[in-house]
Backbone:
């Protein structure tokens, strides 16, 4: 019986003969060699010369494709910005430092302010009847002193520091009556003198001011390119803000602020709004979209004003800044979150570190009244070649040269309590030593009941007196100076908009 191999080759022998079969075998062998050689040459077509690859014209290999991937873009711009503030024509007659009183006149605050920029930037200050005179004075003698076209809105018409105060709630009466708003009735009672007003009642009215405030700003300065809104406890760094706005096109609908979560949407999504206490900015295009009304074929309005359309929403919600964010969202304008440049922290509460160091600071919230004026004076004397960075504010606060303070807390934001059995929990001196021995501890707070709390950021904190517990705060000055020396800012980090990078 013939083998299977013989049976397979037998038909070929009959067809070609034995000699021809040998020639065919040789041909197949040569073809295989040529194929393998070509494959190997293709695999060697990427040569290495001096550590760099030279690609063949056959197209990128898998290695080349992975190498062609660009690194992820940073979440900031390093713009080379220019100050709109004028340089000194002559040396100022006064000096100021964070440790000595201001010795010049108050007019020195505004000697270099770019007043000409205010024709295109409308700044709006929101206040209220129940706000303390000290708070209002700190804002209007410091933060907004140089704003010649300042628009002040409130819940009562009056005059403050030479500025007319506009009652923006007066025009809401017809809409409030339609929905029978209980809180708005407080305003009506106040106007009649029937109610004793306190801070809590004033806050209940505050949310009604936001939308008519936008409408009043637009009506007051319809040609403005930017609208900036702040409260009496907001501090704005005007030089930095003007530098920022110079980088953007006001004909694009833009809404800048510190992101806060607002109205819920379908699918678990959420509207983000600019936190009012940190201040926020709207471009002309954003305001135009927000206040726009539907118009019929004869030019007649088919719907109400912005305030009228959202009156019921405002009445149901807690916060006017949240409703404003929702109204903008429904108008097709979403928040461009610029935290930490727009910041909800006060000056003394800033947790200086990687997130608060090389970034320009645009705004702060709830700083001490003395700091509201002190910062304005400090800014007026500084060289404005570069924007104010958070690292500059650490100089203002003299961080790295602080002594322990009693009845003081610098760890109530982001503090890390040490383990129960840690030696640091035994005494103030042990807590202090443990912080100094830990490279990551930059400050600490000791709680007299036996708690040692570390801070991995640099924070001034503030005075806190408790009835039965004593707090003592300290700073690892050597560690702070070491950290600062290793974190020099090569360029300002102007943060790109984000709704995931939040407070």
Residues:
């Amino acid at each position: 019986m013939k083998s299977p191999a013989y049976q397979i080759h037998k038909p070929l022998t009959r067809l070609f003969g034995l000699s021809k079969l040998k020639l065919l075998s040789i041909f197949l062998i040569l073809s295989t060699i040529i194929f393998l050689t070509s494959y190997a040459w293709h695999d060697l077509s990427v040569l290495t010369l001096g550590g760099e690859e030279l690609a063949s014209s056959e197209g990128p290999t898998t290695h080349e494709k992975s190498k062609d991937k660009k690194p992820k873009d940073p979440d900031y711009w390093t713009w080379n910005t220019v100050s709109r503030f004028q340089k000194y024509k002559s040396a100022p007659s006064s000096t100021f430092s964070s440790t000595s009183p201001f010795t010049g006149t108050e007019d020195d605050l505004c000697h270099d302010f770019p007043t000409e920029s205010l024709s295109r930037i409308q700044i709006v200050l929101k206040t209220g009847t129940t706000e303390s005179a000290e708070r209002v004075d700190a804002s209007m003698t410091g933060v907004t002193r140089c704003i010649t076209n300042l628009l002040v809105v409130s819940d009562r018409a009056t005059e403050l520091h030479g500025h007319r105060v506009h009652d923006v709630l007066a025009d809401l009466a017809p809409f409030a009556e339609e929905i029978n708003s209980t809180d708005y009735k407080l305003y009506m009672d106040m106007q009649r003198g029937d109610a004793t007003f306190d801070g809590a009642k004033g806050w209940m009215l505050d949310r009604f001011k936001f939308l008519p405030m936008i409408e009043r700003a637009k009506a007051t300065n319809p040609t403005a390119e930017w609208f900036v809104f702040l409260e009496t406890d907001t501090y704005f760094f005007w030089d930095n803000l003007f530098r920022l706005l110079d980088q953007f096109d006001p004909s694009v609908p833009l809404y800048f602020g510190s992101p806060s979560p607002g109205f819920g949407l379908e699918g678990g999504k959420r509207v983000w709004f600019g936190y009012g206490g940190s201040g926020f900015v709207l471009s002309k295009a954003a305001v135009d979209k927000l206040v726009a009304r539907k118009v019929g074929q004869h030019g007649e309005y088919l719907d109400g004003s912005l305030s009228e359309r959202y009156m019921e929403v405002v009445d149901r919600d807690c916060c006017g800044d949240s409703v404003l964010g929702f109204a903008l969202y429904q108008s097709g304008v979403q928040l461009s979150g610029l935290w930490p440049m727009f910041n909800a922290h006060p000056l003394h509460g800033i947790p200086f570190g990687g997130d608060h160091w090389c970034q320009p600071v645009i705004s702060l919230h709830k700083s001490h009244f003395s700091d509201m004026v002190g910062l304005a004076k400090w800014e007026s004397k500084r060289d404005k070649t570069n924007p104010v960075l958070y690292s500059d504010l650490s100089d203002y606060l003299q961080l790295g040269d602080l002594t322990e303070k009693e009845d003081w807390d610098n760890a109530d934001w982001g503090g890390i309590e040490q383990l129960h059995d840690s030696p640091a929990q035994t005494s103030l001196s042990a807590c202090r030593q443990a912080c100094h021995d830990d490279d990551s501890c930059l400050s600490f707070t000791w709680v007299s009941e036996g708690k040692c709390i570390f801070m991995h950021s640099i924070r001034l904190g503030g005075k806190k007196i408790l009835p039965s517990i004593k707090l003592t705060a300290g700073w690892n000055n050597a560690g702070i100076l070491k950290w600062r020396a290793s974190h020099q800012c090569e360029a300002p980090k102007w943060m790109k908009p984000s709704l995931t990078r939040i407070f």
